[in-house]
UniProtKB/TrEMBL annotation, chain A:
SUPFAM superfamilies: P-loop containing nucleoside triphosphate hydrolases (SSF52540). The keyword Ribonucleoprotein does not apply. Pfam families: Septin. Keywords: Coiled coil, GTP-binding, Nucleotide-binding. It comes from the Eukaryota. The keyword GTP-binding applies. It comes from Patella caerulea (Rayed Mediterranean limpet). Signal peptide: none annotated. This is Septin. One of its GO terms (molecular function) is GTP binding. The lineage of its organism: Eukaryota, Metazoa, Spiralia, Lophotrochozoa, Mollusca.
UniProtKB/TrEMBL annotation, chain B:
CDD domains: CDC_Septin. It is found in: Chromosome, Centromere, Kinetochore; Cleavage furrow; Cytoplasm, Cytoskeleton, Cilium axoneme; Cytoplasm, Cytoskeleton, Spindle. Belongs to the TRAFAC class TrmE-Era-EngA-EngB-Septin-like GTPase superfamily. Septin GTPase family. PANTHER family: SEPTIN. PROSITE patterns: G_SEPTIN. GO terms for cellular component: axoneme; cleavage furrow; kinetochore; midbody; septin complex; spindle. This is Septin. Residues 44-313 form the Septin-type G domain. GO terms for molecular function: GTP binding. Residues 401-420 have a biased composition (Basic and acidic residues).
Length: 410, 427
């Protein structure tokens, strides 16, 4: 029988070899891409911002379609998240776009808990993915991923600085999702004001330690563009569903008495930059960062919470076994404890009842004794009576005898 | 093919159905997404683990060298047939290959000694152990709390070399494939195919395929491709399974061209000639079109099977608890705990009820006996009182009698006394 000796690497370092011809594995990226395209992509984007700041319009403009969203009112009690999913197709690429909107954000008088609903939503999506990943029979490659890949945070165009709620919310979100701040309704700010505003915003973000999403600069093909764009953040955007004829083309624009703001004019606003960066250049990176950084962070915390750790050097199945055994023994212990408490209670009650019984008996004994005493007294009395009757009878007899004697004597 | 494609598309639409399908009214840009994926994957680099199994001398090392057009196995790094020891081992070689900017980390696993002993029982066990170990490593890495990049060393493909006997599969071949088809993608190859004439090769392939079907062995099936043209080309190659291959390390001058081949007195067998053997088919299918799919099937099917086998909670009766597979073990435990809590509450309520009932019973009994005793005490008291009354009556009567008699007696006595006194006076 062959004994087993498993694995011995012939060399510890892998050698780099030269090919003497065309092997053909340079098609591997294509194979991978073809598979991804066949499966279809998905992208989940969250828009956070006050009511009326232009989130839905921006989504329409960004994805060049009409999402038919109904504008919401200002008097909602708390922040809710509404998500809509759309199937989009551009050339041969299919994408499932999931737009999540924060409804009611910033409308309440007390906005302390506004960010909670958002964080909860993000955590729920992470949790769902984690659950799927931990299942025994799982289908991760078929899983419909709803984790948020990007969060567009809409900053109101005050021209001064970030609002308190902006800072609080972004701070809570920066470790959970890729936060991309944008200045909404930028057609109310002049170029100089904008420059000052952007600098102020970035300063405040840095001061408060808020880590917004930075476009990656490690890929040579896009490093330059990305670095340049990182310096233009946050993008000042204008959205519009209406088209205006400029020259001989219909362009998306907002028409004012004093002129027309063209959405896709890079001089007018940064919309094109935003679209380029988010969709055309870095969409895959957004998805990857969500999976590799934000999700892993969440997973790590969740697992540590549940009591897992890497230090035990045990395999997953062993850890599960241990947990299961512990769990079973916990349940058994609980059952035992409950039974015990009952046993004690029963004993106590029994004791009480016994005492009550004893009391009763004591009482009855007392009564019996009393009765016995009285009976004795009665008996004594009777005996006395008998004795007196006897004595009396004797006297009677004696007296009678005496009288008869006397009579005789006479 | 058209209908098939349409069907597939409809199926996909249905899967994603229920959502609104929106038409784009202009340029958005996510059509560039595949390019982004392409770039990232090139940057990441690729890795592939190939396992070669077969008796010694079947030309495994030569074939690998031919497949990758490089000297993976050389005099410095000898192939498995030159490294046979007394026991079957599993060895790995790792090389980095680069082609047109695409980096591939190729790990070749070979099994010197397989099938070469006199008694080959269980010679597949080291291989099974190796594959399982790799899955175990991956499972552990995937389950860590802190995971930063999971290295994928799982075996993605196993090339199984069949000796060109021309008759059929040997028992060892059948045993091996039966034991490993659930663990790894098996691609059976007919080695040293230049010993078979085309007809012999055809018959051999037919008998191999029928034996494979007979023993219900699941070899790797190259999936169909979406593109019609591609599909036609691939079908021609797919029909040659199992591939009858010839490998060569030498480049020969044949009719003015430099080709890889084997020079015989009667002619040159060209490795890369589809009419001479199926090497091109193997290379194209393995490397150029389905390498990624092999990795995906390993990850989605074989690895998941392993993981399932490892983690499924098998009860004491050997069966799996129903409903336990759709949830991860921790949710399951939480659910079990919840169920148990409910059960305990119910039990507690029941015990409470029984307790109360018993207490009530006892209390009632106690009360009854109290009432009983009370009644008896009353009765006795009454009895005594009656007796007392009777006695008192008798006393009274007796007193009366006594009084009467005494007064009568006293009169009598007085008379006697007076008579006596008189008598005394008389005397």
């Amino acid at each position: 029988m062959a004994t087993t000796e498993v694995e011995r690497t012939l060399n510890h370092l892998s050698r780099t070899l030269n090919l003497t011809g065309h092997v053909g594995f340079d098609s591997l990226p294509d194979q991978l891409v073809n598979k991804s395209v066949a499966q279809g992509f998905c992208f989940n984007i969250l828009c956070v911002g006050e009511t009326g700041i232009g989130k839905s319009t921006m989504m329409d403009t960004l994805f060049n379609t009409n999402f038919d969203s109904t504008p919401s009112s200002h008097d909602l009690q708390d922040v809710k998240l509404k998500s809509h999913t759309y199937d989009l197709r551009e050339s041969n690429v299919r994408m499932k776009l999931n737009c999540v909107d924060t409804v009611g954000f910033g409308d309440q008088i007390n906005k302390e808990d506004s960010w909670k609903a958002i964080v909860e939503y993000i955590d729920t999506q992470f949790d769902a993915y984690l659950q799927e990943e931990l299942k025994i029979k799982r289908s991760i490659h078929n899983y419909q991923d709803r984790r948020l890949h990007a969060c567009l945070y809409f900053i109101a165009p005050t021209g001064h600085s970030l609002k308190a709620i902006d800072l609080v919310t972004m701070k809570k979100l920066d470790s959970k999702v890729n936060v991309i701040p944008v200045i909404a309704k930028a057609d109310t700010i002049t170029k100089t004001e904008l420059h000052k505003f952007k600098t102020k915003i970035m300063q405040e973000l840095v001061t408060n330690g808020i880590k917004i999403y930075q476009f990656p600069t490690d890929d040579e093909t896009v490093a330059e563009t990305n670095t340049a764009m990182n310096g233009v953040l946050p993008f000042a955007i204008v959205g519009s569903n209406d088209e205006v004829k400029i020259g001989n083309k219909m362009v998306k624009a907002r028409q004012y008495p004093w002129g027309t703001v063209q959405v896709e004019n890079e001089n007018h606003c940064d919309f094109v930059k935003l679209r380029e960066m988010i969709i055309r250049t870095n969409m895959e990176d957004l998805r990857e960062t969500t999976h590799k950084r934000h999700y892993e962070l969440y997973r790590r915390h969740k697992l540590e919470e549940m009591g897992f750790s890497d230090s035990d050097a045990k395999s997953l199945s062993e850890t599960y076994e241990i947990k299961r055994q512990q769990h079973v023994s916990d349940l058994q212990k609980k059952e035992e404890e409950m039974r015990q408490t009952f046993v004690i209670r029963v004993k106590e009650k029994e004791g009480e009842l016994k005492d009550a019984e004893k009391d009763l008996h004591v009482r009855f004994d007392g009564l019996k004794k009393q009765h016995a005493d009285e009976k004795r007294k009665l008996e004594d009395s009777k005996k006395r009576l008998e004795e007196e009757i006897n004595a009396f009878n004797q006297r009677k007899v004696a007296a009678q005898q005496a009288s008869t004697l006397g009579k005789k004597k006479k | 093919m058209d209908n098939c494609e349409k069907e597939k598309r409809d199926e996909r639409e249905k899967k994603h159905g229920g959502d609104t399908h929106k038409e784009l009214e202009g340029y958005v840009g996510f059509a560039n997404l595949p390019n982004q994926v392409y770039r990232k994957s090139v940057k990441r680099g690729f890795e592939f683990t190939l396992m070669v199994v077969g008796e010694s001398g079947l030309g495994k090392s030569t074939l690998i060298n031919s497949l990758f057009l490089t000297d993976l196995y050389s005099s410095e790094f000898p192939g498995p047939s030159h490294r046979i020891k007394k026991t079957v081992k599993v060895d790995t070689t790792q090389v980095m290959l680069k082609e047109n900017g695409v980096q591939l980390k190729l790990t070749t696993t070979d099994t010197p000694g397989f099938g070469d002993a006199v008694d080959n029982s269980n010679c597949w066990q080291p291989i099974i152990d190796y594959i399982d170990n790799k899955y175990e490593d991956y499972l552990t890495a995937e389950s860590r709390v802190n995971r930063t990049g999971i290295p994928d060393n799982r075996v993605h493909c196993c090339l199984y070399f069949i000796a060109p006997t021309g008759h059929g599969l040997k028992p060892l071949d059948v045993e091996f494939m039966k034991r490993l088809h659930d663990k790894v993608n098996i691609i059976p190859l007919i080695a040293k195919a230049d010993t078979l004439t085309p007809e012999e090769c055809r018959d051999f392939k037919k008998s191999i395929l029928s034996e494979i079907a007979e023993h219900k062995i699941k070899i790797y099936e190259f999936p169909y491709c979406e593109d019609e043209e591609e599909s036609k080309i691939q079908k021609k190659l797919r029909d040659r399974v199992p591939f009858a291959v010839v490998g060569s390390n030498r480049v020969i001058d044949s009719g003015g061209k430099k080709v890889r081949g084997r020079m015989y007195p009667w002619g040159v067998v060209e490795v890369e000639n589809l009419e001479h053997n199926d090497f091109i088919a193997l290379r194209n299918m393995l490397i150029r079109t389905h390498m990624q799919d092999l990795k995906d099937v390993t990850n989605n099917v074989h690895y998941e099977n392993y993981r399932y086998g490892k983690l499924a909670p098998v009860q004491s009766d050997g069966k799996i608890k129903p409903g336990s597979l759709t949830k991860d073990p921790l949710t399951q435990m939480a659910e079990e705990k919840r169920d148990h809590d409910l059960k305990m509450k119910k039990m507690e309520a029941e015990m409470e009820q029984v307790f109360e009932m018993k207490v009530k019973e006892k209390k009632n009994k106690l009360k009854e006996s109290e009432v009983d005793l009370q009644k008896r005490a009353e009765q006795m008291k009454k009895g005594l009182e009656q007796q007392q009354k009777e006695l008192d009556d008798r006393w009274r009567q007796f007193e009366k009698e006594k009084q009467e008699w005494e007064s009568a007696n006293d009169r009598h006595k007085d008379i006697l006394d007076s008579a006596k006194k008189e008598k005394k006076r008389l005397f």
